[in-house]
Amino acid sequence: MNQGMTRRQLMKTGGVVAGAVTMGTGTALGGRAQPATAGTGKTAAARGKPGARHLPWILDMVQSNPGEAVTLSSFNDARKLAGYGYNGQVVNEWTPPDTAITFDSLDPRIFPLESDERVWVLTNAGRIDARIRQIHEAGLKALYFDDIITLPKNLVSIYHDQIVDSQGRINLDFPMTQQILRVMLNEVFDRFPDLDGLVVRTGESYLFNVPYFTGNDPITRGAASHLILLNILRDEVCVKRGKLVFYRTWSFDGFATDPSYYLSVTDNIEPHPNLIFSVKHTAGDFWRTIPFNPTIGIGRHPQIVEIECQREYEAKGATPDYVLGGVIDGFEEFRGSPPPIGLADVADNPIFQGIWTWSRGGGWRGPYIPDELWCDLNAYVASHWAQDVHRSEADVFGDYTRQLGLSGSDSKRFRQLALASATGVLHGHYSTLFQMSSLTWTRDQFLGGSDKELAGDFKTVYEKGLTDAVIQEKAGAVVTWQQVAGLAGQISLRDPAAQEYMRTSSQYGLLLYTVIYHGWAVMLKGYEGDQTGTYDTAAIREHLAGYDRAWEAYQALARQPYCPTLYVPYSDGTQDASGLYHADLAHGLKPSVDHYRAMA
Prior knowledge:
Blueprint: H1 7-12, H2 44-47, E1 57-63, H3 78-83, E2 88-92, H4 116-137, E3 141-147, E4 150-152, H5 153-158, H6 160-163, H7 175-191, E5 197-201, E6 213-215, H8 223-239, E7 244-248, H9 259-266, E8 275-280, E9 303-308, H10 324-329, E10 352-360, H11 373-385, H12 393-403, H13 408-429, E11 442-443, E12 446-447, H14 455-463, H15 467-488, H16 496-532, H17 537-557, E13 571-575, E14 581-584, H18 589-599
Parallel strand pairs: 1-2, 1-10, 2-3, 3-5, 5-7, 7-8, 8-9, 9-10
Antiparallel strand pairs: 4-6, 11-12, 13-14
Helix pairs in contact: 7-8, 8-9, 11-12, 13-15, 14-16, 15-16, 16-17, 16-18, 17-18
């Protein structure tokens, strides 16, 4: 590697350095007392299955933010992925191969010669050609993420009456829609014969980066729509072309989390070795406090499991956030629950055929990070555990610390920091005292408040008599983050830039969750007063002062060279003409706190 390049510079160049495979840095341990089983993993003997099991599919994706420039990441470099043991790269820059074909075999009017639209399509195709070559040169399978159904605006205009229903949706029930989909898939693999396959999403169509296209969720009749689409994909891609289809269950209709729904679809599709279903490890989005996905390991089709390494509800890598201990062995809030609670519990299930990490991306907007330390730790542990699922998570984590050059007390502190970060996130963002209904009260760079996102949850807290207990839970999270920051100050990493980021991001976490603690205390005490008519003004004033001090220190941290961009204390309720989210200045943490500031 070019030793003159810092990790920060590697980020800016996408991690590609003349013939080098860039390696990331990791996290540490720490924090508040952990349960005896925390992070210890499950040995092969404990599972009763000797020997190694290498999962057939180990995939990674950098998901660029919709509507923004391509994310710069060392994980864009397929050589790095190969070095980590991945065997496939999923490209998701929101310009998939079906937006890089001309549809000439259907109708030459769709993209007329010399038109701006055709030039855009051909340019996009050239970029895809180059990316497929780079991935294959590293020895990986080249896969593209694809929202189906996305079609050229001109095509939809020409065939409108044959493909669009009375509700304005491109509808799979129409024979012409099915014919067009088959034409599209054939043109994709005619144009890109070296493309190994597609990762298909339904439920949403992000059109921010494809100006000449339109689309919508094609699942208009539940399982029946999935079956139409799956049979076309199986026929045209898997059978006729010998290519791969990874079909995501994330479609907002129960397919992702309801075992009976999942089986009603998949049991009616003839298995094919090139047709694989992709499911999130959680029974919902990538949140804590919700169970392991009950659709994992059932049915008669192979599955891969999706793991997000840069969680958009948990600061997006701007703070330490080690999730793989929980993904593999079950998060601490579920320990003691009946299995399965983590991937180790399904390690020998033949349906479980692989993992798909999202090393970067998920969600929208910021915080934007200058270093991939915490994302890299999660991706490393996931990819290396998948190479032998009979190894314990702790063993794989130990490999990472050795890669960083850590040993002895530094290695122990690093693991303590990592485990403590998981506990700090649990009690800082979520709650173990009641089941939150708005797990999205923070998302990306936005902080919600009691005037909108948290209103229902605060009603529950008050009615259950948990106001003071929840405030104490948030105070406990701050204690954990103090331990994280303290441990970060004691660990010496080989890479000075990584060390600086470890310390800055740990301090970022401490200040962010201190803001949250005092902000929640103001809002909860204020809500309590709204219900009783009597306000604890002394407590509200005390927490207002703590909130202001923490917010000022948080703002000052931004002057540090390795500080990620900051949260804004507002909800994300507004969208511009292009659909991108912006702060809703009328709602969120600050307007809610300021409401009670005026009263106190």
